[in-house]
Task: structure prediction
Amino acid sequence: MSAIAIKPDVYWIGVNDRTTDLFEGLWPISQEGVSYNAYLINDEKKALIDLAKAFKADEFFDHIGEVVDPSRLDYVIINHMEPDHTGVLNTLRRIAPQVTLLGSAKTKEMLASFYGVTENVEVVGDGDTLSLGHSTLQFFSTPFVHWPETMMTYETGRRILFSCDAFGGYGALRGAIFDDEYPDLGFYQREALRYYANIIAGFSKRVLMAIEKLADVPVEIIAPSHGLIWRQHPQLIVNLYRQWAEYAESGGEVGVTLVYGSMYGYTEKMMNAVAQGISRAGVPVEIFDAARTHVSYILPSLWARIGVMVGAPTYEVSLFPPVAQVLDMAVHKRVRHKKAARFGSYGWSGGAQKHFERLVESAGWELLDVFEFVGSPSPEELEQGEEFGARFAARIREGR
Ligand code: FEO
Result:
């Protein structure tokens, strides 16, 4: 892809990343990819808004060069310091040593600690403006969406909000950069939720504060730094982010995430009976084998559904480790206000349930029920498991 005009004199100059296996060294994106969107305003003064990850430098500067000589840039607006948006910074400073870097006060500190940069840095405050000639940029402080230094930049004439991580998602661009150019918005919405649950969810209160702060700003285009640019339905992605942020307190929608692990198939056999009971009660259930599914793909369901059904046997007097690891990550990511239950087998001594209860307490979830059995489940126990699932689902559906 090359530089693309999103409005007169405003260009997308981003890059796709289909090479990185793990975003933040943690979250799988080898199938989906990710884009690092950056923008160029070619006015009397020439400004970049955000940059790109270091290994994409060649392609990034090629895109700038299609519009202006990179050595003639005047400003770089740094909305966010994370290196997926700043990695090419020192290369840029070698090409354009005169360039002025603008960011929040915290960004100034981080420029020194991340890149050793202390010169040609100007701090902009909340609401400050910068004239580029015909265009005016306004800066809004939005701390912790995603890091403490984060801000958003608004182009007042064309009403474009450059929102950086906010309103972004995984998913490399597939030859289209706008929401109205790509027919399967479901892919980007799914990947935006996965990104939200993996990266942003712990800062949901700050997301709601940022949305509230910008409520009266007329926005025609949401231009985030990951994923599609939203120009046909900018409110769609804002509303999704608001909905997801509100799950932090509400616990999410009626539905069940069933996370299970099974050593020799006994707990899996019971899982099928429990899932049958949940489905019989008319409640949607999504099922994950914790040992074979990266937690990145489980977190979106845990975030968005209020019910958590855990199926895990006892393993050395503890909860089966792959399931415990998923729950540990849920605690870390502040997945709260859930209603939970557990089933599972044990061979000669229990222990999983006590471990599970400690995790549930750490997560701040409400424990509704438990069903344990010894060894292989009998036909009577499978019937009981189905009833156990139906009973749990009814409580989820009825909100009690
Ligand atoms: Fe896309 Fe928080 O960096």
User: Anything to note?
Assistant: The chain is about 35% helix and 25% strand. Residues 80, 82, 84-85, 146, 165, 225-226 surround MU-OXO-diiron (CB under 6 Å).
